[in-house]
Each structure stands twice: as structure tokens, then as C-alpha cells.
Write a structure and sequence with these properties.
Blueprint (H helix, E strand, L loop, with lengths): L3 E5 L6 H14 L4 E5 L13 H7 L4 E5 L4 E5 L7 H8 L5 E5 L8 E5 L15 E6 L8 E4 L3 H18 L4 E3 L2 E3 L3 H16 L17
Parallel strand pairs: 1-5, 1-6, 2-5, 6-7, 7-8
Antiparallel strand pairs: 3-4, 9-10
């Protein structure tokens, strides 16, 4: 299951700015990250006059815009989806989901706090707060990081939410050379190979699998 982590904070705390710094560090480590931005006021991405807007105006429930580089989905919904529902319905093939906002959701949270902007924290441990990123230290029973410690926060996320993925070992060697695997490729190979091997008689509980292909 893809782990979810919410970056929360009061207005002007710098949530987007911190995510902009954190994302490249996680990507550099080989992780695929999806982001979700929560906007309680609603939003528009299909501008008036565009084909997608015309499709929606004509009554389409769901409109997909597709190109060789990216796709976009515009869909009518009956309620504000939780992060778990968004993960199940819309997000796949990533190692981590980072959301901005969703302070009332049940998922783990990292709060951004600036003393010049705010007087008290938005969340507590009871709200599933797991860490604080701030210009001051807090003693509230969760990990604390300074605002510029992006590497420290990435280490924390990797250890707490992504470590289990790295501990399950799979090595790919081609012509005697070890090929580094990104997490989503590693997970795909693990799932596919284990699934096929477990279907074989006498191989229901494999501990170590070795495959050698010679051409």
C-alpha cells in the first residue's frame, strides 16, 4: 500500500515552499512521489472556451486530456474525497503520496511552523502528527527539524515510511553488471516474480529466488 504523508500548517507557514524543496531530495533518492493539493474553495483547470471545458459544459461526467507527455482527469464528484479514497481511485505506480493540507484527515502529518506567523501549533500527536518543521524547537513528543533541514526530513520520511521497501532485497545483474533499480521497478519485479513462483508446486513459500537467463 502506498504510504501517505500530509504536509500541514496554518496560512503562510510555507507548506508549498517546503514541498518544493523536499520533492527533489526524495526524487534524487530514486522515489516516485505523487502530490495532492487540498483546496476547500474549489478550483478550475478547464478554462472557458477550451475543448475540455466544452466537453464538461455539454454534460460529460469525466473528461480526460491526454498527450504524449502527460494526462489530466477532470471528474464530477459527490463529496470531498479522503486521501485514502484518492489513493484507491486515482493514484498508482508511486512510492509515496505527499499532500498539502488535509489537516483533518487521519493520515500522518508533518506540520510547518514559523514563530513570526503563528503562536501555537495546528496539530497534536492525537491528530497523528509525526514531526514538526520549524524555526524553534518543540517538546511535544514528535521529531523536530529546522526549516532548512530538508535532508533530515527526507531521512526521517525514508526511515519511517519507505525503509521497508528497501529492506526487501532484489538485485538485477545484466552481463555481470549490477543495474540500480528505482523503487517502483523493484516493487514490480518483486511482485511479479514472487507471484509466479508461488503458483508453482512446492514453491509456495520462497525465501530466496535466483533466475539466470543466457542469450
Amino acid at each position: 500500500m502506498i504510504p501517505i504523508l500530509s504536509i500541514v500548517g496554518k496560512s503562510d507557514s510555507g507548506k508549498t515552499t517546503f514541498i518544493e524543496k523536499l520533492l527533489p531530495e526524495l526524487v534524487r533518492r530514486g522515489y516516485r512521489v505523487a502530490t495532492v493539493k487540498h483546496d476547500v474553495h474549489g478550483f478550475e483547470v478547464d478554462r472557458e472556451g477550451k475543448d475540455s471545458w466544452r466537453h464538461k459544459q455539454a454534460g460529460a461526467h469525466t473528461t480526460v486530456i491526454s498527450s504524449p507527455q502527460k494526462i489530466a482527469l477532470i471528474r464530477d464528484v459527490e463529496k470531498d474525497f479522503t486521501l485514502t479514497e484518492l489513493r484507491e481511485k486515482l493514484i498508482q505506480d508511486v512510492d509515496l503520496i505527499l499532500s498539502e493540507g488535509y489537516k483533518n484527515d487521519v493520515q500522518p502529518k508533518i506540520e510547518i511552523f514559523r514563530t513570526e506567523k503563528h503562536k501555537e501549533l495546528l496539530c497534536t500527536k492525537e491528530d497523528n502528527l509525526v514531526a514538526i518543521v520549524s524555526d524553534k524547537e518543540f517538546d511535544v513528543g514528535v521529531s523536530c527539524f529546522f526549516l532548512d533541514d530538508v535532508k533530515g526530513v527526507a531521512d526521517f520520511i525514508e526511515k519511517k515510511f519507505l525503509k521497508s521497501k528497501k529492506e526487501e532485497g532484489v538485485t538485477l545483474k545484466v552481463n555481470g553488471r549490477t543495474v540500480p533499480l528505482k523503487p517502483f521497478i523493484r516493487d514490480f519485479l518483486l511482485g511479479s516474480i514472487k507471484g509466479m513462483v508461488r503458483s508453482l508446486k512446492g514453491c509456495e513459500k520462497p525465501k530466496k529466488i535466483e533466475i539466470q537467463i543466457e542469450d
